[in-house]
Amino acid sequence: MVNQANQKTLQMIADFSNAKGPSGFEDETVLAARKHIGSGFDVEEDCLRNFYMYRKNNTGNKPVFMLDAHSDEVGFMVHSIRPNGTLRFVALGGWNVGSLASSKVLVRNAEGNWLPGIIAAKPVHFMSASEKSSSGAADISALSIDIGAVNARDAEENFKIRIGEPVAPDVTMEYDEQHDLMFGKAFDCRIGCAALIETRHRLQDENLDVDLVGVLSSQEEIGERGIHVAVNRVKPQIAICFEGCPADDTFTEPYAVQTAFKKGPMLRYMDKSIICSPRYQRYSLDLAETLNIPAQASVREGGGNNGAIIHTSLDGIPTIVIGVPVRYIHSVHGIASYYDFEATVRLAVEIVKSMNEGIIKGF
């Protein structure tokens, strides 16, 4: 059963997941953060929609510990309107294109309203034999968004569609209490945004040896853009990147599974963008073991994250990535476990509480 305190946290996770915020359009994610951050923080926002949360009891003379999670989700942008009224669109981020056909989406129009649409591919009835034998759309240009318009003029004048507007999956988060599972969209990285704010809440009254700054950074899915600005503004001495990371327990050989459900957060040694600070990584995994907090370690052959930018910024910043396992990220629907979310927050809280200038210099 989920207790009352967790119900409040679940609502925060749902608000983050449900927020429509493709890369460059993170406004709703920032609104969710403002709703749930509570008192005890000074907040700021820049023109890239990076959202900064400074602990009011920071002293200004301690090492700065930055907690980061990216606020954008993979989404789309309207490219143009076809003569038949359907919309050509481009991807914002790296989609699993084969999973898109028949997905329901929301398209923002010129009046700021979000209109329902369906990602459409050619019906099987009209496919040639070669098309039927193929594995599906190989390129996003083969797909359209159908909002129900009868022609381009109808789409422009009655639906108020214009180019350059964002498109997001139309998914509302649901929680299966019996099995402790959350079903929703954008857990990469909205589950990380929620973990960051929950970590900050639990540290609010702690006497820390670091000054804590939280950042919800923008445009990660299109090349870690927002964090470039954020890290130079915050100038941290150490960092944690929260992520929603791809679970591998449904398709990987058992011996190679490193990001399974209900075994705690995944701390990666590396992916194609970063080798996480080895001493800091080991310190964090050892701390989890000492405190009996479930955690997993991984060596990733692909992927990338904001940590790649942080750890090579300024004079070099010790950085680790703590990821909540999520099945089927970069598709319209994902699944995550509250158990893993809670373990992620517990570990992050203990890392921050344990940190001081001497330990940081040892990394």
Structural commentary:
This protein has 363 residues and is an alpha+beta fold. Strands 1, 2, 3, 10, 11, 12, 13, 14, 15, 16, 17 and 18 form a twelve-stranded mixed sheet that branches. 28% of the residues lie in helices and 27% in strands. The longest helix has 17 residues, at 187-203. It is globular. The protein folds into two domains: 4-73 and 185-362, 3-Layer(aba) Sandwich (Aminopeptidase); 75-169, Elongation Factor Tu (Ef-tu), domain 3 (Beta Barrel), CATH 2.40.30. It is built from ten helices and 18 strands. The model has no long low-confidence stretch (mean pLDDT 94).
Structural class: alpha+beta
Q: What's the end-to-end separation, in Å?
A: 40 Å
Mean pLDDT: 94
**Uncertain segments:** none
Q: What is the CATH architecture term of the largest domain?
A: 3-Layer(aba) Sandwich
Radius of gyration: 21 Å
> How can the largest sheet be summarized?
12 strands, mixed
Write down the secondary-structure element order: HHEEEEEEEHEHEEEHEHEEEHEHEEHH
CATH superfamily label of the largest domain: Zn peptidases
